Amino acid sequence: MLKVPKLDKPKILVVNDDANSLFALTSLLAQWAEAEPYEVIAARSGEEALRQVLLHDFAVILLDVNMPGMDGFETAEAIHQRGRSANIPIIFITAFVADELDRLKAYQRGAADFLFTPVIPQVLHAKISVFVALAVKNEELKKQARQLHQRTNDLIASNKRLLQEIEERKVAERQNHAKDEFLAMLGHELRNPLSAISSAASLIGLPGVSHEGAARAKKIIQRQSQHLGRIVDDLLDLSRAMSGKILLNRTPLDLAALIANCLETYRATGRTADYHVSMELEPGWVDGDVTRLEQIFSNLLDNALKYTPPGGSIDIVMEVDGDDIVLTVHDTGVGISAELLPHVFDVFVQGTSTLDRAQGGLGIGLALVRRLAELHGGSVDAESAGAGEGSTFSIRLPRTERITETKPETMETTEQSKPTILLIEDNDDGREMMAMMLSCYGYEVQHAADGLQGIEAALRHKPDVALVDIGLPGIDGYEVARRLRADGATRGIRLIALTGYGLAEDQRRVLEAGFDMHLVKPVDIESLMKAIGSLTNPNSSSAPAA
């Protein structure tokens, strides 16, 4: 409830150059002021009256007509020329009987009434009471208007807050619904490869399985494991991209050559066999991260393949547009509805899902495309005429000048003795499988199940390379690396960190602890052998942390 402020007392200004008349009027008014709410202010001249009008608002002015200097008429005219005091009622007081011309002159100057001296107190009191009452009512109306205005503003502000809360709640509900759908999709996408892996592993253990059947089961396990790895990578990449933790390894590159190589890989694996794919690439160079640019194109192409029925067409065009390079992927697929089009790059957004989940995916590919394009200083745009009309996705990236490529020195590949390996891993199954794989490729492998055992094994066997898991019981991988580097007997061992954490901060901590290289699980055997070779081959320089 608003507090009603106390009203100011109305003020009466008495202007008269004669001290006796001024005293008589102010004294008379002061007597009545004890019973009525008003305040009396006196002025001896027109100039002084104007100064008082500048300082105060008055309910009424009693103004003597005959004054030296500025007479009453001139004073009244000056008062009413000022906007704030233009409506103050003025009662002229004169000792002379005014004729009609004087009255007309007075009213033209804004007079509200005339009083003649000697003033009759009862008449003066009646007139003053009317103007004081009007002033009180006017002040009350002004206060009420201010209160009403304040209440209106409060209601408008409350309404805005309410509308904002309603909108925020709707957004939260949409986000929660999208997250629920995403979790359901994620469960589906994970269960399918896990089911295939479980079935294939069980098949290998059956007594009557043929050699060909076991070989096919192994390929299924490998293929579905790679699929699971891609799902995890997409989730991690999106999290890093949205939090700004992706660090681009920029280098000048020919984007047309990169796209051509990516498309050739798709063709070699048969993923584009059921589609009419055309490619028109104008050479153009950008300053970008090879891996992330491949990811952008792969996600756009995967999206086109996912939403285009077999037999459809996919057109890939790259052209130079001023200082930009524009890559366009157009398909003749299911298209995008007008309602969905503004949200296709939002996280977890997909078209209408069905129970068969034939199109698959988690709804994060296009969101990742947008973020990666923005990290490269570019942008992405989507167009579609509607459902069934196909869609077009355009990537715009800043163009850079062509760089003359220099051929890298060919590394010597002559056969040499395999380095000895120490594997420190607390996961029993993972440790056993990696040790078996390395042994199959001719490596001598020692292994340990925790950090302290790993340090003892390193002192005992003096391996060439130690593969160290970071999340070890007892002491973690960072501490293992620090202790090995601090001991002269183990200081020369090349250290490779194996971890499920791949953020820039994780890489920094790995290098600070003394590791030579950082690999993110799961690591395929070819990549692992390349990493070991890059650290132990005397003909190669020390490899950078991955």
TrEMBL record:
Annotated positions of the 4-aspartylphosphate modification: D64, D469
Main localization (coarse): membrane
Domain Response regulatory: 11-132, 420-536
SMART domains tied to this protein: HATPase_c (SM00387), HisKA (SM00388), REC (SM00448)
A Gene Ontology cellular-component term: plasma membrane
All residue ranges annotated as the Histidine kinase domain in the record: 185-401
Class in the EC hierarchy, top level: transferase
Subcellular location: Cell inner membrane
Keywords: Coiled coil, Kinase, Phosphoprotein, Transferase
Enzyme Commission no: 2.7.13.3
Chemical reaction(s) catalysed: ATP + protein L-histidine = ADP + protein N-phospho-L-histidine
Coiled coil: 131-158
GO terms for MF: phosphorelay sensor kinase activity
Membrane protein topology class: Multi-pass membrane protein
Protein name per the record: histidine kinase
Organism annotation: Pseudoduganella armeniaca
